[in-house]
Design brief:
247 residues; alpha/beta; Rossmann fold
């Protein structure tokens, strides 16, 4: 059995609404995972993915990163898929409004809600816009986060002073898994190679993979790019990584 517990997490400036998925038995002792949403936000598909982590024996916290702007996103997948539809700009506007500074502020509160400590560390996994936030969690909280996974992460290389390619080489502790889709309009050509070069200069144990024949968003079951074979490969890679988090 799986338990889904709504949470209101006190944070700087308000509360983060989130849901904690956990196995019913010995939930307090289950390894913890911070599951970070993609740009369209928290919705049934992501709740299902968090529940799958719980069914594998993990406590998965699914927070609404847009909490400062919207308690519920109300994502319209069909409208978002139409170029020029206002729904696309609404979603992209929400995503542009959440960056490394906001995540840095929210991260300690979310980790406290998960109950992770240096004695019992957890992991972070991110998709699309939050792939970089999963890596940021590992970079900034290496005592509490032991592993990070980024699936088709965006904005990993930008001109911004806090762009990931600038701080990835300084990472010294933990393990990371990064996956890129073969066709991805949100990840410019050359970015995966730059990320690989940055990680090669770090002391981080890491693996980077490219899933042939896939498109951005292949792991989310509610999207047009969903690829059930690649999605299962993603689950295998994620659970393999999580299996090495100290318990």
């Amino acid at each position: 059995m799986i338990e889904a517990t709504p949470m209101e997490i006190p944070a700087d400036g308000g509360t983060i609404n989130a849901t904690l998925y956990s196995p019913q038995r010995q939930a307090a002792h289950a390894p913890a995972v911070l599951m970070l949403m993609d740009a369209p936000g928290v919705r049934p598909a992501l709740h299902g993915m968090a529940a799958r982590l719980a069914s594998a024996g993990y406590r998965a916290l699914l927070p609404n990163l847009y909490w400062r702007s919207a308690r519920e996103v109300g994502f319209d997948r069909a409208a978002f898929s139409v170029e020029g539809n206002p729904e696309r700009e609404r979603i992209f506007g929400l995503a542009r409004g959440y960056g490394h500074a906001e995540f840095r502020t929210d991260l300690p509160a979310m980790l406290d809600a998960l109950g992770v400590t240096e004695a019992a560390p957890g992991a972070a996994v991110g998709y699309c816009m939050s792939g970089r936030f999963a890596l940021q969690a590992l970079a900034e909280q290496p005592g509490c986060i032991a592993a990070a996974a980024s699936f088709y992460g965006t904005r990993l290389v930008t001109e911004a002073p806090d762009s990931p390619q600038r701080w990835l080489p300084a990472m010294r502790r933990g393990e990371a898994y990064l996956c890129f889709a073969e066709e991805d309009p949100y990840v410019p050509a050359g970015v995966p190679a730059q990320v690989a070069a940055a990680l090669a200069r770090s002391d981080l144990r890491h693996r980077i993979e490219y899933y042939a024949g896939t498109h951005h968003g292949f792991a989310q079951p509610d999207g047009a790019a969903f690829d059930p074979v690649a999605a299962e490969r993603h689950w295998a890679a994620l659970l393999d990584l999580l299996g090495r988090v100290p318990r």
